[in-house]
């Protein structure tokens, strides 16, 4: 229970269905320890913890605060930092779901004798052919299945998503009818929980005080190697970025590639970001546990806000997934999660290693431009 409307109503609905509910709020991060000046907000703030507890007290079920700051910091935050240092763009929320939240919740559930864990995610889970499958939530605008591809079969077997068959508007109406007006009026947070000011560059500077001195002064280069300027350091840029480059070439340019070894940031026009394929590693395949030697037509998403995805043919090769898109995809960033769908079902996912094969049609247009 984060203290927001979704997790609170998930608990309310389960309570009304007759489940014996125990509320858990995870303390993952203390923002003040990062050196930030903004007031702590989001799921780890005292206000949010109190909001979660208020729901539990109102309905008469126990509520506990679980301090996982040490394991969260050791895994999620260190990984987040290391990925930027490696020239990639991390997705900490997916990593947290995969390795921290479910594992931590299940350990506490076992200690309390609980059979299941439930969250306020807009997604569905079901058993089919001996496998537990995640699928899209009914409310496509709020669907969170993308962030759940890494949850293990053992964890899914004990997971309930009470909101999967509901729309956000229905949740708000239910909260209003039950008197939880404060939850309805509460602003939703879309930032990374440990970066509530949404400034990851400032976070990196505070966490690694010597970083900027070490990486500043690297080169902005074009795809042909022409040096066109100098940047603040490769960790402060992401593939597809246009704003904040601090360079003017007379036409719009984007970050096309990050070269960590040479501290170079490659710039180019939007067409230079088009790709036909990518390699994906560290797979977790739910619907079909092994796709070696088999081609499967999917819809593949390359980032969280890529809600529609792109038709693609996937093939598992030596433990990695080769993805061939049927139309060009722009700004594929190594380090982000790729999720494969068959209809509404999550086939599986993994971490993007690299993109390849610029679209021939767009490459020709790019050359002409």
Describe this entry's structure for a reader.
With 369 residues, this protein is α+β, with helices and mostly antiparallel strands. It folds into three domains: 5-185, Rossmann fold, CATH 3.40.50.620; 210-268, Adenine nucleotide alpha hydrolases-like domains (SH3 type barrels); 272-368, Elongation Factor Tu (Ef-tu), domain 3 (Beta Barrel), CATH 2.40.30.10. It has ten helices and 16 strands. The chain has a six-stranded antiparallel beta barrel. A four-stranded mixed β-sheet has the order 8-7-10-9, with no helix packed on it. Strand 7 (219-222) and strand 8 (227-230) form a beta hairpin. The chain is globular and about 65 Å long. The chain starts with a helix and ends with a helix. Residues 34-41 have low confidence and may be disordered.
What would the keywords be for this entry?
369 residues; alpha+beta; Rossmann fold; SH3 type barrels; Elongation Factor Tu (Ef-tu), domain 3; 3 domains; six-stranded antiparallel β-barrel; four-stranded mixed sheet; 10 helices; globular
Mind sketching the topology for me?
Blueprint: H1 5-16, E1 23-27, H2 46-59, E2 63-67, H3 69-85, H4 92-112, E3 117-118, E4 123-128, E5 131-136, H5 153-156, E6 159-160, H6 168-177, H7 181-185, H8 200-207, H9 211-215, E7 219-222, E8 227-230, E9 254-259, E10 264-268, E11 274-285, E12 295-301, E13 310-317, E14 320-330, E15 337-342, E16 345-356, H10 360-368
Parallel strand pairs: 1-2, 3-6, 7-10
Antiparallel strand pairs: 4-5, 7-8, 9-10, 11-14, 11-16, 12-13, 12-15, 13-14, 15-16
Helix pairs in contact: 1-2, 3-4
